[in-house]
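Example record used in the benchmark description.
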Amino acid sequence: MRREFEHGDAVSWDTSQGKTEGRVVRKQTSQTKIKGHIVKASAENPQYIVESDKSGKRAAHKPEELRKV
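Model output (structure tokens):
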């Protein structure tokens, strides 16, 4: 079962500093760059661009790394 998220969904994910919460900005289905890193997203393997509530920074995560809050 594939996890699906929509723009604005509140989500959490694990980081090296602990659990972080934020919001889904968009579903990424094509390759892009974030902070100099290549995000290898595709229609078959989408990733979600999320924005941290605490820092305001954006990152890409695979659906299985995210949990709805």
